[in-house]
Structures are given as structure tokens and as C-alpha cells.
Amino acid sequence: MNKRRWTTVFRGLLAATVLVGPAVALGGPAPARADEENPAAEPPRVELVLDVSGSMRARDIDGRSRISVAQQAFNEVVDALPEETQLGIRVLGATYKGKDKKVGCQDTQQIVPVGRVDRAQAKAAVATLRPTGFTPVGLALRSAAADLGTGATARRIVLITDGEDTCAPPDPCEVARELAAQGTKLVVDTLGLAPDEKVRRQLLCIAGATGGTYTAAQSAEELTGRIKQLVDRARDTYTAAPTVVGGSARCPDAPLLAPGVYTDREQFSEHRWYRVPVRPGQELRASVSIALDRPVNPDHAVLLRATAPDGRELVRGVDAGSGRTDVVSAGLRWSAAADDDADADDGDGDGETPSPAAGDTAAAPTTVCLVVSNAFAPRTGTRASPGMPIELTVDVVASSPDPGGPDLGRGWVLLLLLTLAGLVTGLVAGLLTRWWVATWREN
């Protein structure tokens, strides 16, 4: 065998050795994908409710009529709609041209049923709308809730209107409270197209009753962008709707939270406190998101901290931006083993601890105080009330080794395997080299 052939064989064997060594060390099943964990997740369901009453003829948005701006926004939203989102469209004041208020106040129809959207059909239905009649907002909201039905996930109504309800009863605020009280897992977001104080108060009331947001849209770009954000947000809803909770001004009075998703409202530059029991060997994972539902100055931030009941800071959260411009988030992790001196009291000063679950013989839990703070500042003319909508996610899991430390944790195992693989690779490469040199000399 000539030297060139031996050289080719040697290089092939050496390459195989170098590649196979690390592959053996890193072998194992691939991590499961997040979407494989819940393959039967319910698709997001949204209904857009559009006011087509006579006032929508006004030409005061970029020199165009309110209805034409809304139609353009709907077309762009439909074109950009995620495939998995089920969307419906309902209108109010769109068909009755008479003056009989009793008849006109029943004027609401669903023009696109909730489901996978036929884009061409939906845009054609919206294009035929002409401003016509009264404004039965309360009746339209109640009908939209029925359109969306019931299910495991939170459902969303996006109401776009330029005027207050002209048909009460039912009063739209009372309808929103009624839906919230029924536990229908329904969120109503409102968009106002006219700078009217009475309309603004009514839309704020509707949104606040259901944990939704209110936005004043003064241009076609603002309206389109906001509707897209709200439709996209429907994809972020949890399989269980957030539980309404009221944080307190200090830890001892704060509500005690189990793992779950919670919603609250926070005023500008406010601190709101919550408590979470964490047992030794467990790890607290928490995150908070604040929706920017009104104009704020650009130098804003949200801070999430975990403290002991005596006020000692255990860990400070870090920003958890998602790239979205309408939500600011932060998150943290803390292990009960990280602070052995933390008070195991429940934080209310009575020396008692929350009762453990049936069959749980573990040590008494440490009470961790979570405080959500913000540095938001409203722009001139922006009202501070009601507070900004916040969503707090709490989870308690088995702690991982030193979750907050700078060391490698379980990475030491991987490092050891890589070292052994390197030694084996070097040994085999050395033996092959000696064999190749000896064979080359013989030939």
C-alpha cells in the first residue's frame, strides 16, 4: 500500500474518532418541545365589535371618516391574523335607518362567525358597512360573549366605538360587571375613536370590570397597531384565566398566593405586595407584566423583588422583554435553600404558618414577599386612574442546584464527560499515529 493511500486511511480514521467521541458524550434524547407538552391546547378566540352608528360618518381622523379608518384597520388585521386564531366580527347600529329607538336598540349582528377566518369573505363583509343607526353597546357586548361561548382559555372582545351607549338599559358597564361576575373568563378591551370625556369614562369602566385595557386611537396607524396587539395578545392567554387579586401596601397584609396566574391594577409609581409560601428544597419562579394601556413617558420600567417578611431583599428580578412595545416585564427565581435564615413565619405577625397540604410532612414553608414596583410617569393629559393592568405569574417547583449562582450546576457532569471523551480521543489518535508512522517507514 503506498504512502498516499495510508495517509487517506489515517485521516479518515482520525476524523471519525474526533467526531464520535463528543457525540457519545453528548448523546441522549432530545429535549421535548413546549408545544408537544400540551397538544390539545384550545386556540385563541377573539371577537371584534365595531360601532357602525351614524356618528361614524364624521371625518376627523387623518381627514377621513371614522368608518373608513376602521374598515382599513380591520382589513390589515385580517390579513395579518395568525392561522390558529379564531376570529369573529360583530357590528352594532349597522342596519336600522329609522327613528324608532326600541327597534334601533336591537340592531346588532354577527357578520363573521367565530372560527378560522375566510379572509376574502371577512373583508367583503366589512367593506359593505355604512354608518346608520343607534349605539346599543351593552346589548352588543352581551351578544359577543355568547358568540365566543365557553372554554378553557380566556376569550377576548375588542370593542371599537366613537360614542357612548345610546340605548341603556342594559348599561354596558353593568353588562361588563355581569360577565365578570359569571366567571366567563372574558376580557374586554376598548378602543375610543373620539376625544370625548363621557365616552372615555364609559370605555374605561367596561375595560376595568373585565381586566381589559382602554386606548384612545387618534389615527389610522394607532387603531391598526392596537387591534393587532390585542389580537396577538389573545395567543398569550393561559389555559386558566388569570385570577383577580388585590395586592396590598405592605407585606404583612398581602394576599397569600398559590402557584397560578393573577391579575391586578397598579397606580403610577406604586408598590404592591403579595406573599408566597416556599418550602425548603423548593424554588420560587415569578414574573410580572404591565400592559401599557395609555400614553407614558419613554423612561419607564417595572421592578419585581422577593424579600423576607422583615424586609431583607432576597433577590431582585431582571427585565424580561419580549420585543413587544405595549408590555413591560420582569422575572426572578429564588430557592428556599438560598437563605437558611429566612423567617418561616407567614408574615402576618401571629407566628403561625399556612397549613400544609394533606399528607405533606415537609418542613414549614418560608414566606416570601413579592413586591411589584413601577417607575411609570404619565404624559401630560393622561389620567392616572384606574391603575395599569398587571399580570403576575407564580410557580413553585423543586429547586435546581444553585439556581442563582455563577457556577455550572449540573454542567459539571457534562464537563466531566467531555474531558473523558477528549482523553479517549487523544489516546486513540496517538495509537493511530504510531501505527501510521511505523507502516509508512516499512513501505
UniProtKB/TrEMBL annotation:
Which terms are listed as keywords in the entry? Membrane, Signal, Transmembrane, Transmembrane helix
Acidic residues composition-biased segments: 338-351
Q: Where is the signal peptide?
A: 1-34
Identify the residues that the record assigns to the VWFA domain, covering every copy: 45-234
The residue ranges crossing the membrane are 412-437
| Lineage top rank: taxon | Bacteria
Show the Pfam families listed in the entry: VWA_2 (PF13519)
Compositional bias, Low complexity, is annotated for 353-362
**Residue ranges of region Disordered?**
338-362
Record's protein name: Inter-alpha-trypsin inhibitor heavy chain H5
What organism is recorded for this protein?
Answer: Micromonospora haikouensis
